[in-house]
Write a structure and sequence with these properties.
about 150 residues; mainly alpha; globular; 2 strands; two-stranded antiparallel ribbon; 5 helices
């Protein structure tokens, strides 16, 4: 079986995930204002920082996170089992904090606030992705041969 890479689909998926992260970052900065801060609201630097932070966060979650899990596979597996999956949130918070270190105009006070910010951003990003990709599937596949698509015709 040969797998084909579809550039348009990859760009579309990244754009949707970036848009979800962008909305999540804006909401996070609004809700956690003194602890997670962007530059002055409404300024060009505000929008540029939010866009750059979202892009870095999406890239870290897409590329670095899986490599980190793979490199520490036995430790990661044990950690996830012992923490009953809470370790995924800790890794997400680390990615959020790391993105804040890469994009200096954003301020994240502590790891705890990074955890809360990562949870809010992930919830919004997941919701946006679900809505976009679910709506794309709403039309469904074309009906099968022989009728209304309700199953094999008799």
């Amino acid at each position: 079986m040969r797998v084909r890479w579809n550039f348009e689909r990859t760009v579309h998926q990244f754009a949707v995930h970036w848009a979800g992260a962008f909305l999540g970052v804006l909401l996070t900065a609004l809700l956690l204002d003194p602890y997670v801060r962007l530059p002055e609201t409404g300024s060009l630097m505000y929008w540029a920082t939010a866009a750059a932070f979202s892009a870095v966060l999406a890239a870290l979650n897409v590329y670095v996170r899986p490599l980190m899990y793979l490199a520490t596979l036995p430790l990661t597996c044990c950690f996830m089992v012992v923490t009953l999956g809470f370790g995924h949130f800790v890794v997400g918070a680390f990615m959020f904090w790391l993105a804040g270190q890469i994009i200096p105009p954003i301020y994240v006070e502590s790891f705890g606030w990074a955890l809360l910010g990562a949870l809010i951003t992930a919830a919004i990003s997941t919701s946006v992705s679900w809505l976009v990709f679910r709506r794309g599937q709403a039309g469904g596949a074309p009906p099968r041969e022989g009728g209304n698509g309700a199953g094999p015709s008799t």
